[in-house]
Design a protein that fits this description.
about 210 residues; alpha+beta; 2,3-Dihydroxybiphenyl 1,2-Dioxygenase, domain 1; eight-stranded mixed sheet; four-stranded mixed sheet; 12 strands; about 20% helix; globular
């Protein structure tokens, strides 16, 4: 089984305000990613080139978001301010992972502002057993060039990749959930969830908490 970091999701109350803060505070450029009609959310993408990116996600249709587990979780996560929401792992054999964990693999898609469609299959994102410290899984089904991280933006900070992710949670449970995959994740104390993400820059590591 080949698992690797695909993206890390940061839940926010206002996409435009969060985009401005990421630009001025961290030197990160984001672009509109589109709307998820099923979840009542929309996102912006901080593209890191090739295989990874950061996702800013916000509720844009509270009525729809309130009917689903994902929307309610985002509302809960942002009740006291913007914060990291979840780690997503790209999975080359998502069916095997889903069978091992008894998860359902579901198709998803969204339309980019330029009209192109981004499509994927995911597992675990809305499963009640996945606590905030555990990742969900994704397999992209569209053209490689449409992957959200494919075209790296010219970030003023010079960020090029995700170096590591700090997670508050049980390391043993995380290992069991991911099948003992080798991942740049370290465990810290605190309420369960992603705590910080370290990003690679030419000078040093940029940490977003």
């Amino acid at each position: 089984m080949s698992l690797r970091i695909d993206h890390v999701v940061y839940a926010v109350a206002d996409l435009d305000a969060a985009a401005e803060r990421f630009h001025t505070t961290y030197g990160l450029v984001s672009t509109p990613g589109g709307v998820h009609p099923r979840w009542g959310t929309a996102n912006r993408i901080v593209a890191l080139g090739g295989a990874r990116y950061l996702e800013l996600i916000a509720i844009v249709d509270p009525a729809v978001a309130g009917t689903g587990a994902l929307g309610r979780a985002i509302a809960d996560r942002t009740a006291e301010g913007d914060r990291w929401f979840a780690l997503c792992l790209r999975d080359d054999d998502i069916e095997t992972t889903a069978a091992r964990l008894d998860l359902t693999v579901e198709p998803g898609s969204r339309r980019l502002p330029d009209g192109r469609e981004v499509s994927w299959r995911s597992a675990g994102i809305e499963d009640a057993r996945r606590t905030p410290d555990l990742p969900f899984f994704i397999a992209w089904t569209g053209e490689p060039g449409v992957h959200p991280g494919a075209q790296r933006a010219a970030h003023p900070s010079g960020v090029t990749d995700v170096a590591r992710v700090a997670v508050a949670g049980d390391a043993g449970r995380f290992a069991a959930w991911t099948g003992d995959a080798s991942l740049p994740v370290r465990f810290v104390d605190g309420p369960p969830g992603v705590v910080a993400v370290g990003l690679t820059t030419p000078a040093d590591e940029l940490v977003i908490r």
